[in-house]
Amino acid sequence: MEKLFKAITGAGTGALVAFLLAVTVLPDKTDVHAVLGMYLALMAVFAIIFSTREWRFRTSALSYLAGLVGVSLVLVLSRHVDVGMGVILLVIALSLLVVLYPTPSGVIDVLLAGPLYFSGAMTVLAVGGALNLFGSMLGTAMATVFIGFLGMIGVVTGAAARLLFAKPKP
């Protein structure tokens, strides 16, 4: 299970690096399929690198998955019903409960947890853009970024508090 958490954390880190490269380096007219290919390639490379290291991650792996699943849930719901701020905040709160249940494995785990929540949200945005899932739903794309930022702040704050107030092991 520990190796899976390391691979998920690596994939999330690869997606974050791909997002940063896409925003800063790639021209605006770059094909979305090329960006998705870059996402997948970097996710695979970082997953392999992280899974071979002796690092331990719990909160950051769950954080990436929570961002991914939370935004996917909002995307699916928005196709069928009107999603308001209450639903968005409920999804964020539920994902924070899942992420913050285990005690973080260390400071690096806490520091990666927030950006990886945002990375999970941006992965859904990249896949949704490449597969044309959003269509003309600009509000859903904006909600994705909002969920990513708000979840990132909540995860870092909660994980840091969880680590700070954790009972030391004898």
Q: Your description of this structure?
A:
By secondary structure, the protein is mainly α. It has one domain (2-164). The protein has helices at 2-24, 32-51, 59-80, 85-100, 107-130, 138-164. Helix 1 runs antiparallel to helix 2 (32-51).
Strand and helix layout:
Blueprint: H1 2-24, H2 32-51, H3 59-80, H4 85-100, H5 107-130, H6 138-164
Helix pairs in contact: 1-2, 1-3, 1-5, 2-5, 3-4, 3-5, 3-6, 4-6, 5-6
Keywords:
single chain; 170 residues; mainly alpha; 6 helices; 78% helix
Q: Concise description?
A:
The protein contains six helices and no strands. By secondary structure, the chain is mainly alpha-helical.
Number of strands: 0
- Please report the distance between the alpha carbons of the first and last residues: 24 Å
Shape estimate:
globular
Strand content: under 5%
- Sheet with most strands: none
Written as H for each helix and E for each strand, in order along the chain, the element string is HHHHHH
Oligomer: single chain
Overall domain count: 1
State mean pLDDT (0 to 100 scale). Answer: 86
Secondary-structure class: mainly alpha
The helix fraction, in percent, is over 70%
Low-confidence stretches: none
